[in-house]
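Why should sequence recovery work at all? Because a backbone constrains its sequence more than one might expect. Tight turns favour small or flexible residues, buried strands favour hydrophobic ones, and helices have their own preferences. The token representation captures these environments compactly. In the example below, the structure is given first.
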């Protein structure tokens, strides 16, 4: 089916902020981009929505394609629609967040990502696009989440140390700053 319109339409995308705990510290999954723009830079996993899928379906698909991580519950967090957030064209992204135990997944680069790995939130590399701003917004979402203790427990390994839970909970609530 071919569509033609009198008015230009922005492209829709989904980006994913997937969090875990490592040594009681909050970490986020990033991918190293394999294509321009920002080739070789680190970014959130994500990509363009297909015409026959929802934004949540897009987020789920892109996470699996770029990192190999599948079957993760994702929640919509925010929409980012700055006019020049992407140099290619007008792109609006819906950011989805999720949490996972680090020992439950084995991220690997795939599709258009040459690498995928966890980064401590306090030691992020330079990021592509507006992803640093997106991560700050998602941190605020985590801080306001109604079940921060549940989030922390979902990220920690089964044999976690009490100090790891205390440190992670402080980080989630912003008490460590």
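From this structural description, the recovered sequence reads:
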């Amino acid at each position: 089916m071919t569509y033609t319109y009198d008015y230009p339409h922005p492209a829709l995308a989904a980006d994913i902020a997937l969090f875990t705990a490592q040594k009681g510290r909050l970490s986020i999954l990033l991918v190293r981009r394999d294509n321009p723009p920002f080739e070789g830079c680190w970014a959130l996993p994500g990509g363009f929505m297909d015409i026959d899928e929802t934004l949540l379906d897009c987020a789920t698909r892109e996470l699996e394609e770029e990192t190999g991580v599948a079957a993760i519950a994702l929640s919509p967090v925010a929409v980012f629609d700055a006019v020049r957030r992407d140099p290619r064209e007008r792109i609006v992204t819906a950011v989805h967040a999720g949490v996972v135990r680090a020992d439950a997944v084995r991220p690997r680069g795939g599709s258009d990502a040459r690498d995928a790995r966890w980064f401590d939130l306090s030691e992020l590399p330079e990021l592509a696009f507006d992803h640093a701003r997106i991560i700050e917004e998602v941190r605020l979402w985590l801080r306001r989440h109604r079940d921060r203790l549940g989030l922390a427990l979902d990220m920690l390994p089964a044999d976690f140390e009490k100090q790891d839970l205390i440190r992670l909970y402080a980080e989630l609530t912003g008490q460590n700053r």
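A few observations help interpret the result. The chain has one domain: 11-173.
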